[in-house]
């Protein structure tokens, strides 16, 4: 009899220890949006995050994903998070500099040398520093996902030297740092939301745009662009943002589930993005794009032409922000 009693008490204790976690998880519906097609590696990331959430909530949460700017562009969706009318967005950081100017540091040309450096900065102290600033404006950044290294496409000519940029009508993200960078290269730069780019290229309202290979491929820019040049002029991250007002209504258990599963999604998304980069480059060439790399000498001239953007935007980004970034990069590079 005593053994049965002990067993019953042990089982009851074990069950009661499990209960708080389940009791802390309510039925939830999460709306998440993004500006690109689901075939982009962001789709893989969202799928992995959803699987993680299904497992941890035992199916108590529903994730509804919307693609190709269906719920508005990056800035519109992000404002919906701040007002508490949408839960989540995977967005480029660049269009958000009007909300948090410090984000502009990620738009500085040729800032990161490679994705390993980008990961170390974004997943380290600097990323935490930026996340604190985002929380102050009602945005919880659950993780940094990968947009990637950006390259120029156009319908006019191969860009092999600095002078080939001259007069080109280039679409840039709604961000003065990108605007000034491409004006410094001699182009006629135009800020535009991502959802409008394909039509603007198709109608020849603009000549060019710049994005990572996987975006050029999955957004089918090869249908309206003849030339792709490996400028690799900036590495921009994606932010996996959650609404601050809504996040604050979640239990600590639920908040941790969001953070943990956004990291699971991040690792899958980055991995697929890097695996697909060369595949996408091959795809767009097979679809007819003429690809060219740029000589080291010409890359030095291009870098020199845009280096003034750092000084021009130091005040708007924050000298302290840029100094912090440079210090962490120097430490990584052993300088
Ligand atoms: O929602 C993300 C897209 O808007 C993303 O592709 C942003 O790189 C981007 C661009 O060029 O606008």
Notes on the protein architecture:
This protein has 335 residues and is of the alpha/beta class. It has one domain (28-333): Bacterial extracellular solute-binding protein, family 7 (D-Maltodextrin-Binding Protein, domain 2, 3-Layer(aba) Sandwich), CATH 3.40.190. The chain is 48% helix and 18% strand. It contains 14 helices and 11 strands. It has helices at residues 2-23, 41-57, 74-82, 115-122, 125-135, 176-184, 197-202, 213-218, 244-247, 252-286, 296-306, 308-312, 314-317, 319-333; strands spanning 28-34, 61-66, 88-92, 139-149, 151-154, 169-172, 188-191, 208-211, 227-229, 235-243, 290-292. Strands 2-1-3-10-4 form a 5-stranded mixed sheet, sandwiched between helices. Strands 8-5-9-11 form a 4-stranded mixed sheet. The site of 2-keto-3-deoxygluconate has 11 residues, from β3. 2-keto-3-deoxygluconate binds next to β3.
